[in-house]
Amino acid sequence: MSPPGDRPPGGFRATLIAVLAIDRAGFAPVIALRGAAGVAIPVAIGTALGHPAEGAIAGAGALPAGVAGMGGGFRANSTLIAGTTVGMALSTLVGGVVAGHTVITVLVLMAWGFAAGITVVLGREATVIGTQAVIGLVVFGRFPESVASSATHAAWVLAGGVFQALLALLIRPPHRFGAERRILASAYADLAQLARDPNRPGISAAGEAAVPATLLRGRTPSEDVELLRGLADEASRIRLELQSLATAHDVPGVSEIRLAASSWLDRSAVAIRAGETAAPEDDTLARRVEQLRELREAAPVGRQGTATRYAAARATALLGQLRAVDRLVGALAGIRRLVLPRGRGAPAVLMLPRRAADSWRQVALTARDPKSSAYRHAVRLAVVLPVAETLSHALPWQRGYWVTLTAMVVLKPDYAATAQRGVARVAGTALGVVVAGLLIVAAHPSGGVLSVLIAIATWFAYTSFGASYAVYSFGITALVVLLLAPLGGNELSTVADRGLDTLAGGALALSAYAIWPTWEAPTLRSACGRLLTSLASYASLLLSAYADPPAVDPADIAAAAATARRARIAAQSSLTRAIAEPARVRADTDTAAGILAASRRIVIALHALRTTLEDATDHAAVPEVAEIRDEIVAALNGLGRGRPVSVADLRDRQQTLAAEDPTGGDPSSLHARRRALLAAHLDPLVDSVDTLAHVMSSPQPEAG
To answer: What is the pTM of this model?
Structure first.
């Protein structure tokens, strides 16, 4: 367990740090030009044709579509762009029709709020679509129109979104697959850190490497796509080798090998990000690996030489994988820059009904589970949005829809996101309203000058989208104020009213969460439980493959490892959210941190066993491992379900396995070597299970 000084700060301090944090790597000034053009061009065309209001509405439709297109190429975001555009257009139509009818407006807001809240279970894309749909309803629901006029406004919104989508299709980043390149480069840089520090969790690199693989899943198969997928696969494999080498840190030369590998990985990260060929290979790693091989040849036969032989095998595999990365990076540097149109395959289209049905079932299940965070989030939105709408009419300030709009964007399913993004949004929105409003009052921009200001504000907002939510909120709010300028209301009092409306909406959202919160403690407990039971399944399959190799499918082991990795990511994310909660209600984060620390050591031991199993050309059954396997699996399952377990016999089982074969068999045989390796790797595994049992049986501190 980490000492208190090593833990991240919690409560208000964590919120403030998150609000002020700026990720410099997140700035995207080049690709932001495309999004800015998608918003500014419709505004400029409308102004030039004498229809500035219609141009502003089309620009408003292009705005959320541009946000949706900031994640990479068009194909990776086509569903999100289309869904966002259609949702905004539909909400514009409905908002205009129901505007002026208070009761109907409140009922529609309740329905839109609940739908937007419940669909967060479907992931980021559904969340973005739902949020933007509600914003469209709120903004355009203030202007009572006939059905024909509302349909016209909706058509302009749709046209703006379609224009933004066309730009995303025609204009790609300077390097193809820019988002995937950046993520892969980050993954390899993180692997370099893992190589330098054996105690650093490898989960970030694993998660980063999985993202491009997910993004590429929808791409049309091609040579360049396969190169990127190969780099993602190599990153996952390298992570396993580095974690395996961590178990042999006492073997001479292993530390030097890890340092040489870290330099290699740093070079690879730079080359991937820049789209260039990697620097020439440094022979330091190769020389270190050769020295370790010489130690392997001189290692004693039997258990005493197991660690050296194992380290040599892992180092050799790592060297081969890094050389493979260099080949992939070199090929990637020469991929085509000219993007030719490709059609989507029929199988992807045929899968849409099944995916829609699966999503509907997931939403329906969540809607019947009052204990889920998504359900509570949906109910909060369904209540808060009508209250905000009613309050906005009661307040004497103009542009009252800013109250409802701010409440919508601030409320999130969990406390950490609501507090952090809430403070960032309120601060950024308030500043954006005031700065842009004062600019309008002082300069009275119109025509071409207003179009230029809109383009600059759009570019600034999109550029900072991935770097700072507070800065992005400032830019996007200033943009919205400028877009609404052609609709009138540019008095100084209106500027102040917008700022007050923003503060009122943010305060209402934060108050609603405080009245009916969703604290992380239950989620953290269940996430830690799922982590331990998934590790039990992984250990069961892996040790069964040693006990009886033909009985276990390697694909099942890989699937179990992936499940355990996802469970660990979920538990770590839950712990991060719990730490950010107020101390008086905070979950037992000390115990959870201890569970995650011990589980990491279990993962390292299991991965070490897995790499040896996958590399072996000949297998020898070690049925003696069955007893300790069953006890380890039973202990992990019991701890995962919160039951007290006894682990007193585990150490005896491991030491029995470590003893020389009582039958007097050949100590150099494959069976004897495999048995010795199992005993060596079961040592830290048993110790970690013992630690888990101790951590989970210790008295839990009271909250606050």
So the answer is: 0.68
